[in-house]
Amino acid sequence: MKNVIIGNSAAGVSAAETIRNIDKDASITIISDEKHGFYSRCLLTYYLSGEISKKMLFIRPDDFFDKLNINFMPSMRAVKIANGVVILEDGSDVQYDKLLVATGASANRIDIPGSDADGLFCMRDLNDLTAIDSRLGGVKAAVVIGGGLVGIKTACSLAKRGIKITVLIASGTVLSQMIDANSGNMVKAVLEKNNLKIKTGVTPKEIIKKSGKLAGISLDNGETIDCQIAIMGKGVEPNTGLVKGLKIQVNSGIVVDNRMETAIKGIYAAGDVAETMDIALQSSRVNAIWPCAVEQGRIAGANMAGKIRQYPGSLRMNSISSFGLDVIALGIVDPKDDKYEIFTPKDNIEQNIYQKLILKDDILCGAILVNDIKQAGFYNSLIKKRMKITKFKKDLINSANMYGSRYNLIKP
Q: Under a CB-based contact definition with an 8 Å cutoff, are residues 207 and 114 in contact?
């Protein structure tokens, strides 16, 4: 059985390991458009800040592919899927019996005058990180475009390197896709206290160039910010192009069933490119986070190897630690529908402590925790189990010793 995996990140490697654990003799090929081995994208900003070494990015040993008898094809871009064959950019092809599309997502780029300037970067993979790191010598000021998770983490990392940082955010607060306005304002205050300049409600109008190099950014409010580099952190777009033209449904991502299989038998998708059932929303969406990619890869790999495994669904989970402020967000965090109940067991802006719980029909479907995060695992389990909490709802919303006294409710 020829198993081919397109993509060498969390979902792809997780699938390959699972296949090998089940079938010691299966043929496994991983095609990657990157030259590197398996590394953690979650750790990129820690390297950028100088907190870890480059070697620590790689979370499998150098001989990983050889030991697992995996045919690793680096620096090879897949361009087409057709009739049991993956066609590569150089014209060669790879035959498959089972195929996993784990192509991830690409960073959104801004399209404004001057966006071809030397010094405008994304922050998505190791190539981006290497390019940014190589340009930091002599950089005094940088702009981060976007106030999402990647943008804020990148801004904090560059600030730790002694660079003057300005963050440009179109919305009214930081991390607006991850948390609500209350917790977002708490994060914003901590960032500003640590000398990051946060500008909300603004968008870049033009990249200013001098001799082809980035020299500043003009904004829609008429202001101009001088800087030597800028990082785009405006979200990602799933890389679904490979299945274009095939009889495979694509919405935001590649639609899969609970076995991670697409509408074409034998073709699977997992990770940031896949659209799965969201446990909290009870509808399909792309949850582009590392833990989901790992689990989806495991499910896909097991099914590719002939086992029957079902994916229970994904759950949006994000966390960030900025200058001592810890934030965790789970599931639905800022619903507009009045069918949801919202409770704040803890809300102390002065002490930077905030907890918000979101319920629907007495089922917990979301939570935000700032600094007092010890119950995150408990809330996460409640959301995933979708259990009615009617009998202990009062205790839950009062945050009264729930972690200890009710732990037995979520044990397997």
A: yes
| Residue given tokens 């790689």 in the structure block | 58
Question: Domain ends where: 234, 258, 286?
Answer: 234
Helix-helix angle 149-160:181-193, to 10 degrees: 10
CB count within 10 Å of CB 374 equals 8
Domain boundary among 217, 234, 251: 234
Range of the domain at 67: 2-105+239-304
| Whole-number Å distance between alpha carbons of 263 and 36 | 32
Q: Is residue 10 part of a domain?
A: yes
CB-based contact 28:70 (threshold 8 Å): yes
Contacts of 86 (CB under 8 A, 6+ apart): 4, 6, 31, 78, 80, 93, 94, 95, 96, 99
In degrees and rounded to multiples of 5, residue 43 shows phi and psi of -95, -5
Residue 373 backbone phi and psi in degrees, to 5: -115, 10
> Do 100 and 247 belong to one domain?
yes
Instruction: pLDDT tens for the chain, 412 residues: list them.
Output: 999 999 999 999 999 999 999 999 999 999 999 999 999 999 999 999 999 999 999 999 999 999 999 999 999 999 999 989 999 999 999 999 999 999 999 999 999 999 999 999 999 999 999 999 999 999 999 999 999 999 999 999 999 999 999 999 999 999 999 999 999 999 999 999 999 999 999 999 999 999 999 999 999 999 999 999 999 998 899 999 999 999 999 999 999 999 999 999 999 999 999 999 999 999 999 999 999 999 999 999 999 999 999 999 999 999 999 999 999 999 999 998 899 999 998 888 788 999 999 999 999 999 999 998 999 999 999 999 999 999 888 888 776 445 544 545 555 4
Residue 310 lies in a domain: no
For 344, residues 6+ apart whose C-beta sits below 8 A from its C-beta are: 354, 355, 356, 357
In-domain check, residue 312? no
DSSP 56-117: GGB-S-TTHHHHTTEEEETT--EEEEETTEEEETTS-EEE-SEEEE---EEE----STTTT-
Token representation of residue 318:
């994000």
Task: Mark whether 158 and 216 lie in a shared domain.
Answer: yes
